[in-house]
Amino acid sequence: MLTIKLNKTPLGWLHLLNVLIILSSVLLCCILSFLRLPGMELIGVGPNWLLMWVVVWSIKRNVWQGAIAGITLGLIHDALTNPHPSNVLSLALVGILTANLRKQRYIQEDFISVAIIVFVMVIVTEMIVTLQYSLLFLSPLENIWQYYQQGVISSAILSSLWAPALYYPLNRWWVNLHKIEQQKTRLFSGKKL
């Protein structure tokens, strides 16, 4: 029913609606990053919502779009929290790696693949942040990693469990939008001939 109504909407309005959905989903992820609701916390650690958003975005995009999303959300994350160590590098790398996985056809677009990718990317992100912390404060890596070990696994588990809840609505929206754009392009090119 939604698709039928959207088919009659001008393409410019659909692009504006897409931008609003993207911005509101990023805002929702920022808000959820600070909330600790029941089921969203394990030993004091919550899911990494901004990382999940970068993964969901990058699955269907090219490497540059994934990197730009990672850099942007890394800057947002640093602005909302302590910028030392920075999350820009780690989230940019997540966007690049996820887009490369899609490009290499190593993944399929289903809930399990998204959950596995998010699990691995949380570990990669936390390792990068841990290395930055070690270099920044000249602390031995063993001491820092021992402290972060439980938190990393908890965050990876929670993030991978919550990732499909973010992936499904955004993916469904982008698939429907792409179908509508193709239909309108075919109609437009058919009228031109």
Shape: elongated
CATH topology: Arp2/3 complex 21 kDa subunit ARPC3
Which architecture per CATH?
Answer: Orthogonal Bundle
Beta-strand content bin: under 5%
What Rg is obtained from the alpha carbons, in whole angstroms? 19 Å
Number of helices: 7
Classified by CATH, the class is Mainly Alpha
Number of domains: 1
What share of residues is helical? over 70%
Largest sheet: none
Q: Overview of this structure, please?
A:
80% of the residues lie in helices and 0% in strands. The protein is mainly α and 193 residues long. The protein has one domain: Arp2/3 complex 21 kDa subunit ARPC3, CATH 1.10.1760. α2 packs antiparallel against α7, α3 crosses α6 and α5 (88-103) packs antiparallel against α6 (111-137). The model has no long low-confidence stretch (mean pLDDT 84).
List the helices and strands and how they pair.
Blueprint: H1 2-7, H2 11-34, H3 49-59, H4 63-80, H5 88-103, H6 111-137, H7 141-192
Helix pairs in contact: 2-7, 3-4, 3-5, 3-6, 3-7, 4-5, 5-6, 6-7
